[in-house]
Every structure is written in structure tokens, then in C-alpha cells.
Write a sequence for this structure.
């Protein structure tokens, strides 16, 4: 909205005479934090905030999801791709509780979010008022920090603190609960936003003495491996990582969320480790004598049975969160700090290393000997093949958002990410329904980039109402439903570990996804034949606008290789066809 | 093993809830907890006794507590030179005949009688936990009606022995 100078002048004068309300202060704080995109959903308790936003709507790109869960997953996708905090506003009670899954997801995957929730008027807090929920109590375990603002004049400081906490150290979600009267009332007191947090002083620069220990360990090592996690991305340390690995010729394993922090097609890349990781990656993690973890948290899906995880390795762990070090895996060289600083310090101190050629050759021959595999489809399509084709059609340059399940693992396996900030997936929490709304946030963060949402038919049905946004905001996202008419991963486990008792995992009925797309005025295509898929894919990817592709795939296909639950890295199954 | 941990925290609403919630969801058992203001009006001090399996678990407790924004400093002071005290109020059955006898028992503990009624009397005792336990055992034969204990509160002595071998419990020390 463009206003004439006169109008602006009049507005400025009017503003100067009326005292600012809490909502006005909130808007001012958002402007100061350079917030451009807002994922908000209005409701009773946030009416004053949305009214203040209405007056300043020319300053923000406001995105109205159709469900608060959509808002928060979109904010997560936005944060993951832009590196900036995702900002969400929802109303009290159900509005706030609908955010809980997304907040938890952001907490466990360390995504910076600032979430504003409305609250009932202060005099009725604690009386079970209409749309009242104790969102502070509910979100305390799932946020990095949370606040309930009791005084209007506290708002500017609280918001400033919240953005600081969400975006520094190990990023995470911060909730600010604002009672309606705090938003509506004029601010009578003076205020300022300076703050001091003596209990929150994250260590950014690592201790050089610890790096010296790592240097000594590298001199002694014969079989070193780097495990690179999402911490590398948050620290924007990909180029430093690449340089370090290349200089010393150390192979690199990525975690699920770390994909892209090291080029997936690089010679030294062994791919993803863990339950559905590559043979080369898991074998390297098992055989290594020096494991250098950079910004990964030794999640159980990565380590498998801890007794068989890097059993003969000296473990060095670089992490900005000291509580992650030694939590799951006994660590010999803890290095607390930002991954970029650590890698710069490592470059400074570690000039030369023994040759790791023999070990490197073993890793690379494993990679060549035991690649990820699938059987080329003839009649029916399979998920792995679909994703491989998408990878090739997009030249590996798309931003890919996924949901959770088989298609997610296949995407992690067959879509090789050569650059960071291209991969949006729900790792720690494994949130179905995440992928599609997250792709919306990713596209808003990078309007000119190709965004592909690879989803399953199960997860897509959890948040498909956000199709509304595509047409409304002209977002040219390409949705690919890897449709096996089942909850594929559940089905796979039931097949393998529950004697093929497919309890509630196979859909007897599904919507016509093409008609559904058309109902939202989006182009929809159903493809069953592999030849059709190959023929149409380029055109669909290049299509100027959103497209929904209902790709019908074989239901019986399973994700391999696999470390069965409770087993170790050395006990993989399905390594070869 | 039992460890005494102190935490200096910001005096903000919900901070105790954050800490007890954290300990509960990470499966750490709290034996006792005591909270109060410090010399600084913005800060409170929490002293708690936790029962943990090993040093790795202990390290997780202190690290997780330190991660809380409102927690300023966490220390495990178990192996340091400390002063630790607990206060207990003990109500026992008694009558006029027994009072002097009981007085004789509590005197060496430097406990005091703080309330007397027709058939009860209440005793206040402070000191180390072992001392309080000992007094409770001595009073038990008279019939204990009620006990209220504060849990331990503690801090470091003014001077730490210089030659004391400190076993570092954290890899980061």
C-alpha cells in the first residue's frame, strides 16, 4: 500500500498525539528487528495487535495460514532457509496450543523463532476465562525461553531479549505471551529496550588449548572422520569445513539435518550416516579412530546402539551448546563454541597432518562398492526413483522441503545437496504435516528460487489446507506427493518387525488430489507411469506457478539400507540389492 | 550418590517451576530443595540435593541447569569446604511430667522449645542433616506428631583449603 506524503504526514501527527499502546510498541520493536515476514492468525486476544498491524500493513509481508500449525511450520521453513528468525502471532487458548507441535519441532531442530501469543486480560488470568490456556506452563519445556508480559513498558525490552535469545548461541524458539490489556493499553511509563542477561552468555570463541588437543589427536590418528551437523549451517561455516576436509583429506559424514553443509557430490562426502545412512558413512563411523563431530548432537537415529558407535574412536565434539557434549557419547576432546570460530582456529593451528590415504581409499572404495541403490522401475514408479529424477531435473539446485517418513529418507539419500540452506526437513521431532507449510516459508524466504515440496500422502493430508496460500501469494511451489496410499514407514516397520500386521497404516480411501488442487485453483497432475513422469517432469518443474503432482508409487517399497532398531552401525541390512 | 548443588537464579516468576520441571523431565531426582533471596534483591539462591547415578549424569544436571536463561550460576559444592544447615520443626507428644526429660534430650543439640500445649510440645533444631536425624531418632519414642523440614541450604566457607585435591566432575573444567 502506497500512501501519499500528505497522508503519511497526517498519520505521523495523529501518532504523535496519542500515547502508544502495547500493540504499537510491539510493531515498533518488530520494525527495529527488521522483521519483514509475519506468520499470523488473528483472534480475540490479539485483536489490538492485528489492529495495530493493519495501520502498518505496508511495512510487513503478512501471511495468513489456514491453521496455526501451518503458520508455525511456515515460520520454521522461513527460518531454516533465510537464517533469520521466523515470527508468528497467534491468539490465546486454541490459537496458542495449535502452535505447540511447531514450537517443539523448532526447539529440537534449533530453529530461531519468536512466537507471540495472545492471552486473556490480566484480571481474569487464572479464572479459566474464555480461550484461556496456560501457554507459559505448556511451553516452558519446549522453548529456549518464554515470557508473559505484565507491564506495557516491559514490552520493548522483552521483545529485544527474545530476538537476542532466539538467534544467538544455539538458536531456538522463544514465546512471548501478551495479555490483551497489555496490548490494548497505552504506555504510561517511560521505557527502554536495553537488557542484561547474566545467565545467558553463550561461548562463541572456543578455547585454543582444546583445539591444540585436537591437533595432537590428528597427528596420532590413522582413520579420522568428520561428522558435520546443522551447527555448521547455523555458523555459516561450510566453506571452512570444505577447506579443512580437503586440506587434510578427511572423509565427511553428514547428519540428516547437516545435509548440504558439505557438498553431497564431493569426493570426500560419504553421505548421510545413521539408520538409513550409507554403508560408507556408517562403516567409517564404526571403524574410525578419531571422530570429529562438528555441530551435530549424536541423535539416537544417527548413532544406533551406542555400544557399537565409534567403539575404538577418540571423540572430539565441537558444539555451541555445552550440554550436548558428553550427553550421549563419551567425549575426549570437548570444544565449546561456534563451529566457524572453531574451524578458523583449527586452520590456524593444524597446518599439517599425517597422510590418511590408506583410510581415505577404504572409505572411497566402500562408497563405490556399496552405493545407495534401487531397482529401476518398469511398470510402476517407486519413491527412490521419483526423487532421483527430481534431483536430476532440478540439477540438484532446488530448495527441497520434505515431510516425515519414507519419502523423507529417500530425499535425504538421493537428493544430493551441494550447498547449505537448501534442505528443510523435520529431523528431531519427526513432525508429519511439516513439509508442505515449511516449503511455503522457504519460498517466501527465497522468492526467486525453485522450491520443491516432497511429501507423503499421509503427512500432506495433515496440513493441506495451506494450498490456499499458494494461489493467494502466487508461490510457484512444486508439490510432489510420493503417494503409496499408506503410511509407508509405519507399514515398513510393521512388515519387518510386526509380522506384516498392517495396523491402521494403509489408507482405504484418499481424496482425488488433482481435484483437490483444482479446488484451490492450482494445476494438478496425477502420474502413474514412469515414462509419463520422465516425459512431463521438466515441463512441470518449469511451469510458471504452483503445481501438485500426485506421483503414484509402489506401496511395498522399503527404505534401505537400514540399521534395525537396537542394532549398531555395523549391523546394517539391505546394503546391496 | 547425593550431591549438593546451589544455583544463583534471577528472581523472576516461574523460575522455580522451570528448574523443577527441567529436573523432572530429564529424570533427575530431587531429595530436597530450598529457595530464598540473596544479598542481591534481583537474585535468589536455590540449594538442592539431588540423587544421581554417576558423574556423567551429574554433569548433565549442571549443564542443563546452566542452559536456563534465568539461571546465573550453578555449582556442585559437595566436595568443597561448605557450611550446610537445615532447620526442622518437630512436634511431639508430651505432658507436664515429660517436659524436663525432653528438655534434657534436646539441650545438647542446642534445640529450643518453641511451643507448648497441654499434650504436645514443639522443638526447633538447626544443623547438619545428620544431627537433625539423630535428634528425631531420640525423640521418636515420645511419639512424633508432625515434622516440618526446610531441606539443606548451604554455601562455601570463607576460605577453601588451598591444598585440597579437587576432583573435576566436568570434562570442561
Amino acid at each position: 500500500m502506497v500512501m501519499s506524503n500528505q497522508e503519511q504526514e497526517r498519520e505521523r501527527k495523529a501518532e504523535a498525539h496519542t500515547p502508544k499502546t502495547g500493540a504499537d510498541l510491539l510493531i515498533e520493536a518488530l520494525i527495529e528487528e527488521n522483521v519483514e515476514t509475519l506468520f499470523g492468525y488473528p483472534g480475540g486476544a490479539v485483536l489490538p495487535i492485528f489492529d495495530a498491524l493493519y495501520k502498518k500493513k505496508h511495512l510487513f509481508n503478512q501471511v495468513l495460514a489456514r491453521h496455526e500449525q501451518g503458520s508455525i511450520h511456515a515460520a520454521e521453513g522461513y527460518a531454516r532457509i533465510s537464517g533469520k528468525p521466523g515470527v508468528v502471532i497467534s491468539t490465546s487458548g486454541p490459537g496458542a496450543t495449535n502452535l505447540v507441535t511447531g514450537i517443539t519441532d523448532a526447539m529440537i531442530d534449533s530453529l530461531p523463532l519468536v512466537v507471540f501469543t495472545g492471552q486473556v486480560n490480566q484480571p481474569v488470568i487464572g479464572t479459566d476465562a474464555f480461550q484461556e490456556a496456560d501457554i507459559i506452563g505448556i511451553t516452558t519445556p519446549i522453548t529456549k525461553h518464554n515470557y508473559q508480559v505484565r507491564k506495557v513498558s516491559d514490552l520493548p525490552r522483552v521483545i529485544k531479549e527474545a530476538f537476542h535469545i532466539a538467534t544467538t548461541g544455539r538458536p531456538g524458539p522463544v514465546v512471548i505471551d501478551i495479555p490483551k490489556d497489555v496490548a490494548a493499553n497505552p504506555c504510561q511509563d517511560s521505557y527502554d529496550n536495553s537488557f542484561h542477561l547474566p545467565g545467558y552468555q553463550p561461548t562463541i570463541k572456543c578455547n585454543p588449548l582444546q583445539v591444540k588437543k585436537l591437533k595432537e589427536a590428528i597427528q596420532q590418528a590413522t582413520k579420522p572422520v568428520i561428522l558435520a551437523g546443522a551447527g555448521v549451517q547455523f555458523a555459516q561455516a561450510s566453506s571452512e569445513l570444505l577447506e579443512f576436509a580437503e586440506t587434510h583429506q578427511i572423509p565427511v559424514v553428514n547428519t540428516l539435518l547437516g545435509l548440504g553443509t558439505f557438498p553431497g557430490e564431493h569426493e570426500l562426502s560419504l553421505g548421510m550416516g545413521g539408520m538409513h545412512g550409507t554403508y560408507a558413512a556408517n562403516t567409517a563411523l564404526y571403524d574410525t579412530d578419531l571422530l570429529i563431530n562438528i555441530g551435530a548432537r549424536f541423535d539416537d537415529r544417527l548413532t544406533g546402539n551406542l555400544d557399537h558407535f565409534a567403539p575404538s574412536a577418540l571423540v572430539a565434539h565441537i558444539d555451541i551448546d555445552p550440554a550436548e557434549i558428553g550427553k550421549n557419547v563419551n567425549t575426549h576432546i570437548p570444544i565449546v563454541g561456534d563451529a566457524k570460530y572453531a574451524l578458523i582456529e583449527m586452520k590456524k593451528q593444524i597446518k599439517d597432518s599425517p597422510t590418511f590415504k590408506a583410510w581415505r581409499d577404504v572409505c572411497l572404495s566402500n562408497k563405490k562398492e556399496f552405493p545407495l541403490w534401487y531397482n529401476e522401475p518398469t511398470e510402476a514408479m517407486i519413491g527412490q526413483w521419483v526423487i532421483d529424477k527430481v534431483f536430476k531435473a532440478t540439477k540438484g539446485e532446488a530448495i527441497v522441503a520434505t515431510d516425515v517418513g519414507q519419502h523423507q529418507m529417500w530425499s535425504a539419500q538421493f537428493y544430493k545437496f551441494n550447498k547449505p540452506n537448501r534442505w528443510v526437513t523435520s529431523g528431531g521431532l519427526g513432525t508429519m504435516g511439516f513439509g508442505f507449510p515449511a516449503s511455503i516459508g522457504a519460498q517466501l524466504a527465497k522468492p526467486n528460487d525453485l522450491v520443491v515440496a516432497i511429501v507423503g500422502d499421509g503427512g500432506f493430508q495433515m496440513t493441506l489446507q495451506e494450498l490456499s496460500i499458494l494461489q493467494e501469494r502466487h508461490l510457484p511451489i512444486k508439490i510432489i506427493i510420493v503417494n503409496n496410499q499408506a503410511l509407508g514407514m509405519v507399514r515398513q516397520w510393521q512388515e519387518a518387525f510386526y509380522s506384516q500386521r498392517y495396523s491402521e497404516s494403509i489408507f482405504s480411501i484418499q481424496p482425488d488430489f488433482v481435484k483437490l488442487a483444482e479446488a484451490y485453483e492450482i494445476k494438478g497432475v496425477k502420474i502413474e507411469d514412469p515414462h509419463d513422469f520422465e516425459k512431463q517432469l521438466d515441463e512441470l518443474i518449469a511451469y510458471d506457478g504452483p503445481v501438485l503432482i500426485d506421483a503414484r508409487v509402489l506401496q511395498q517399497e522399503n527404505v534401505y539400507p537400514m540399521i534395525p532398531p537396537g542394532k549398531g552401525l555395523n549391523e546394517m541390512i539391505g546394503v546391496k540389492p | 550418590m547425593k550431591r549438593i548443588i546451589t544455583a544463583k537464579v534471577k528472581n523472576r516468576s516461574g523460575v522455580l517451576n522451570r528448574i523443577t520441571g527441567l529436573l523432572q523431565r530429564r529424570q533427575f531426582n530431587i531429595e530436597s530443595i530450598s529457595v530464598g533471596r540473596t544479598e542481591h534483591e534481583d537474585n535468589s539462591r536455590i540449594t538442592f540435593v539431588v540423587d544421581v547415578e554417576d558423574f556423567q549424569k551429574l554433569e548433565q544436571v549442571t549443564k542443563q541447569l546452566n542452559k536456563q536463561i534465568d539461571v546465573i550460576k550453578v555449582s556442585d559444592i559437595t566436595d568443597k569446604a561448605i557450611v550446610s544447615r537445615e532447620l526442622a520443626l518437630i512436634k511431639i507428644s508430651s505432658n507436664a511430667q515429660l517436659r524436663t526429660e525432653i528438655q534434657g534430650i534436646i539441650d545438647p543439640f542446642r534445640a529450643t522449645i518453641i511451643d507448648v500445649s497441654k499434650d504436645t510440645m514443639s522443638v526447633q533444631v538447626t544443623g547438619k542433616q545428620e544431627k537433625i536425624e539423630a535428634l528425631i531418632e531420640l525423640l521418636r519414642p515420645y511419639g512424633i506428631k508432625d515434622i516440618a523440614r526446610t531441606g539443606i541450604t548451604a554455601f562455601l566457607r570463607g576460605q577453601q583449603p588451598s591444598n585440597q585435591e579437587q576432583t573435576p566432575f566436568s570434562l570442561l573444567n
